[in-house]
Task: structure prediction
Amino acid sequence: MSILEEIFISIRHYGDALKLIRKHKMWPLLFVSFILFTLILLLCGFGIYQGYASLIDWVLNRSWVQAWHSFFENASWVITLFKVGMSIASFFLFMSFGKFIFLSLGSPLYAYISEKGAEKYKGVEYPFSLKQLIKDVVRGIRLAIRNFFKQLLLTIILFLLSFIPVFGLLFSLLIIMLDAYYYGFAMLDYCCERDKKNVRTSLQFIKEHKGLALGNGLVFYASIVFIPIVGIVFIAPISAIAAMISYFHITEKS
Result:
């Protein structure tokens, strides 16, 4: 199955996730997510905004940027594209950091939502174990830290490349896709945890099915653009259930 096919499958399963939530009246889980992450978003959002604005001001006041202004004075559209590309790239650079905090603090809740969704979807019951929950949370945070530093390195490289006039928009798009991939990665890993896959096996599974992770994350980022606050708070738990359905779709066909 190609990456493109997996992306479309992953996106389609958001619709299946909504059907599952309506059928089994799982709205209270979304409400709990709303209360908890509204508080987290208020704290993270202010920090992201301040960091994003400060970085833009700092870059635009650099001497080499001012030199570009003089060099391209007769082609203002180039400068405009440069500013747009840099703004998009820096925004998602700080969004990546905010997402790391968001997913790390939300790991127990998302793991629980994914599990409850799996129970309704498969008609089975997973026995609760506090010891296993703590183990899964620690594993989730460890993996989130690993992914964060790996993603941060790649994002910084793309961010620096986004300074290139015209081509900067392309690198900004790659930053969004990279961030979407690692978001979907986290959602799929909850399923791998529940399936008793160790970290190495989980990494291998998601590496083989990059399209599922990317498709799941792209819907989340589309929600940021079109319904910013509501999208982040409500789409996030739906992402966990959509990733669960995608996981079963692939593993049951294997």
User: Anything to note?
Assistant: Residues 3-251 form one domain. The longest helix spans residues 76-122. The chain has a mean pLDDT of 79.
